[in-house]
Amino acid sequence: SDFVKLANQFVVPVVRDGAVAAMVVLNLTLEVAEDAGDAVRAREPKLRDSFLRVLLDHANAGGFDGAFTANGTMDSLRGALLEVGRNDAGPGLRNILILDINRQDAG
After folding, report:
1. Angle, CA 42 vertex, CA 38 and CA 44 arms, to 5°
2. The overall pTM is greater than 0.70
3. Which residues pair with 24 in a beta bridge?
4. How far is the C-alpha of 25 from the C-alpha of 31, rounded, in Å?
5. Which of 1, 21, 61, 102 has the most Cβ atoms closer than 10 angstroms to its Cβ?
């Protein structure tokens, strides 16, 4: 495998009652087939857009509330990210690694 670290972190707002209640910051790295690294790097803007959409949907569905780092919740998020990632990058994308995740409540 090869690993492609996405250049910038993702910052996802958690909105409640029309206001930002928290911010979640994630760093993602992609595990790819050895021969897929360059192709995945070339698709990074498209991948980032798709990943951000998944992360926003996850936040809006309450995925970053409560015990948001529970294994089941994280597996669900990784699965959704992998699905859209494979749509954009192809089958050479093997796995999504969440290297850092932090939630900062507002106020």
Report:
1. 115
2. yes
3. 12, 103
4. 20
5. 21
